[in-house]
Design goal:
Blueprint (H helix, E strand, L loop, with lengths): L1 H8 L7 H23 L6 H10 L4 H29 L3 H21 L2 H23 L4 H26 L4 H24 L5 H24 L4 H5 L1 H15 L11 H16 L3 H17 L5 H20 L19 H25 L4 H14 L6 H26 L6 H18 L6 H15 L9 H24 L4 H14 L1
């Protein structure tokens, strides 16, 4: 392993030790899933490896969390597939309508759920598309396709979870501690500027990025649930602490200083506390002392009372974060999160309309690649539904899919015919997989990397006996591009209304 890491570190690009380890773990898990698929004589042995390539993540907690919820979502989706098959196996139009309604319900659920609960909803939706596409053409084989899909997902999840658990380090607790200390210190500095009367462009500029970074810490909590028992058991107080921080950061009440020297003194103390960065418990005690001193020793105006309340909120936030240092000693308030049900309804209707449009193309053209259209449509329509710029995401999917098609063509028709045996097959596939896995480590290319990996693995896949039919390959590759084009058209014709988010959130806050 050490030799492999050194060899990867010598390659061009961002090959740090962490990146190299992540790539090697992902390759090992995909190879293991592929081997198990062949050993168990699955109908589509490459499906387990595709599951691994969809789940890869540098952090162990994300792998475990995504994996568990992917299995859960797959099981729910397979039950839905069995129900739809039992009801509409001989009625194609009702079958398609049922798939579209189910996909729409899952996309709507994904919109209002958070963290990996949304992952389960997504997977439950497109599992039906993947399992029932072939079943619509051959209903008598529906049960076999459903069982094969479930088996492939379980193999992929177990392979990746095993490799990640054995060969990756638990890092979320350290990352979370550093992130909480960072946002807490920056909040102290921002509050110090307010006490010192510096409501300037500097504090306004710091406010927006800080609020966003606090939200990113909440995402880190979602990852940490799958890796750390401490994070999982302290989730409620940690989320409450982030809510208190948001209350401090987003309060923009003007300050009437009236020449009080106590304001400058507390501002200096906050700056010193932010620089010293003691433990959360000690910092909470210091801030509470400042708040009590300021509140009891001065006849404060309304604006100065707001500063006192901000100190109290900051102290409460630090006390909540101190649960990482000791057992929580006070009851934690429940933190509510905004659910945009109007947006969920819009996303669900878009998924339904897109499914019906794809079915219409399939029905009118009598194209034999209808199952491929549904299989590609499901993931794309769900994964990008809540994206801020879904059209841009589809464009990246286009580019990554095109790269995957070219790589699959070169691998399947130029390389694979000249090799035999699982060892050589794995060696060749690793060379192509490594490119896409490395791309997922770079945020600008992550979407392209995922699209490349899934398109390549699907198009290059073979069963127990390899078949090299270029016409069928080109037909399937073209179906991928058509499905992406339908998704792009759907997102352009039925876009999300980003402006409504602020209005709906404001109404929810006033109502609460």
């Amino acid at each position: 392993m050490a030799l492999a890491l050194r060899m990867l570190g010598a390659l061009p690009g961002a090959w740090s030790p962490d990146v190299s380890g992540y790539v090697l773990r992902s390759l090992a898990a995909a190879s293991l899933a592929l081997w198990l698929g062949f050993q168990l004589h699955l109908e589509a042995p490459f499906s387990g490896a595709s599951t691994v390539l969809l789940l890869i993540h540098p952090l162990q907690g994300a792998v475990v969390g995504k994996g568990f919820n992917r299995v859960l979502g797959t099981m729910v989706g397979l039950v839905a597939a069995l129900v739809l098959t039992g009801l509409f196996a001989q009625k194609m139009l009702l079958f398609i309508l049922g798939v579209g309604v189910w996909l729409g319900l899952c996309v709507g659920a994904m919109t209002v759920l958070r963290h990996y609960q949304a992952t389960a909803a997504v997977v439950a939706g497109y599992t039906v598309c993947l399992a029932l596409g072939p079943a619509i053409v051959a209903p008598q084989q529906a049960f076999d396709h459903i069982v094969a899909r479930g088996t492939a997902v379980v193999l992929g999840v177990l392979s990746l979870s095993l490799v990640a658990t054995l060969f990756s380090r638990k890092t979320v607790e350290d990352k979370l501690n550093k992130a909480l200390k960072d946002v807490s210190a920056r909040t102290m500095r921002l509050l110090a500027l307010r006490f010192e009367g510096e409501h300037s462009a500097q504090s306004a500029i710091a406010q927006g990025p800080l609020a966003i970074d606090v939200s990113k810490v909440d995402e880190l909590l979602g990852i940490g649930r799958g890796e750390s028992h401490l994070v999982r058991s302290r989730l409620a107080p940690l989320q409450a602490g982030l809510a208190y921080l948001h209350a401090v950061i987003l309060d923009e009440s003007p300050v009437n200083r009236c020449g009080l020297p106590a304001l400058d003194r507390i501002g200096e103390q906050l700056q010193q506390l932010a620089d010293a960065q003691p433990g959360f418990s000690a910092a909470a005690d210091r801030v509470r002392e400042m708040q009590h001193s300021f509140a009891h020793n001065h006849e404060n105006s309304k604006s100065q009372q707001r500063l006192s309340e901000q100190l109290a909120d900051l102290s409460s936030a630090l006390l909540c974060f101190a649960c990482l240092e000791r057992a929580p000693q006070t009851a934690t308030r429940a933190v509510g999160f905004h659910r945009h049900y109007g947006d969920a309804l819009r996303n669900g209707l878009r998924a339904l309309v897109t499914t019906l449009a794809t079915a219409a193309v399939w029905y009118l053209t009598a194209w034999d690649q209808g199952p491929t259209l549904l299989a590609v449509l499901g993931p794309c329509c769900t994964l990008l539904a809540t994206s801020a710029a879904p059209a841009q995401g589809i464009a990246r999917f286009f580019k990554g899919t095109l790269y995957g098609i070219l790589a699959a063509a070169a691998c399947k028709f130029l390389v694979l015919p000249h090799i035999s045996g699982f060892a050589l097959l794995t060696f060749v596939l690793i060379a192509f997989w490594g490119v896409g896995i490395h791309a997922t480590t770079r945020p600008r290319h992550a979407m392209q990397g995922i699209a490349y990996l899934i398109a390549f693995n699907t198009l290059v896949s073979t069963g127990g006996t390899a078949q090299y039919d270029f016409t069928d390959f080109a037909n399937q590759a073209f179906a991928w591009m058509v499905a992406l084009a339908i998704c792009l058209l759907a997102f352009q014709l039925l876009p999300g209304k980003s402006g409504s988010h602020v209005h709906v959130l404001t109404k929810a806050l006033h109502r609460d």
